[in-house]
Amino acid sequence: MSFTPRSGAEELGGIAWLPRMIDKARAKENGELGEFIFPCPIDRQLLQRLDMDADTFQSIAVNHSDEEVVKKVQEP
Q1: Is the pTM of this model over 0.85?
Q2: From residue 20, how far is each of 16, 52, 76 by CA, in Å?
Q3: 13-34 burial string, b = 16+ CB within 10 Å, else e?
Q4: Would you state the torsion angle of the CA atoms of residues 73, 55, 59, 70, taken in this order, to the nearest 10 degrees?
Q5: Residue 49 contacts by C-beta under 8 Å, 6 or more apart in sequence?
Q6: What was the pLDDT predicted at 1?
Q7: What is the DSSP letter of 73?
Q8: What's the angle, vertex CA 64, arms to CA 45 and CA 11, rounded to 5?
Q9: Is the peptide bond before 19 cis (omega within 30 degrees of 0)?
Q10: DSSP code per residue over 19-72
Q11: Are the beta carbons of 32 and 3 closer than 8 angstroms?
Q12: Per-residue confidence (pLDDT) for residue 44, from 0 to 100
C-alpha cells in the first residue's frame, strides 16, 4: 500500500494545505514518503507564512494531533 497525503484543497484551522503538509511530515518521519516531497515548494511557502522551518514543523506534526498542530502553528 502506498502513501497518499490528504488533498491540498483541504483546510485545517482555516489554513489551506496544512493537512497535506502534516501528512507528508509524518510520512517522512516514518520513512513512508515515497514519491512525495517534504518540504516541497508549496510546503516551503506555507512554512514561510507560518514563520517556521521544516524541521520544527515536522517535529510538531509527529508529536501532536492535528488539532494541536493548528494551535502550535497559530501561536504568536
Answers
A1: yes
A2: 9, 16, 22
A3: eebebbbbbbbbbbbbeeeebe
A4: 20
A5: none
A6: 58
A7: H
A8: 45
A9: no
A10: HHHHHHHHHHHTT--TT--TT-HHHHHHHHHTT--HHHHHHHHHHS-HHHHHHH
A11: yes
A12: 98
- Give the integer Cα–Cα distance in Å for 59 and 56: 5
The separation between CA 17 and the C-alpha centre of its own chain, rounded to angstroms, equals 8
Q: How far apart are CA 39 and CA 18, in angstroms?
A: 12
48 exposed, middle or buried (CB, 10 Å; 0-12, 13-18, 19+)? exposed
Give Cα 18 distance to the centre of its chain: 5
- The pLDDT tens digits of the residues spanning 37-61 come to 999 999 999 999 999 999 999 999 9
The C-alpha cell of 48 is what?
Answer: 514561510
Length in residues, the chain: 76
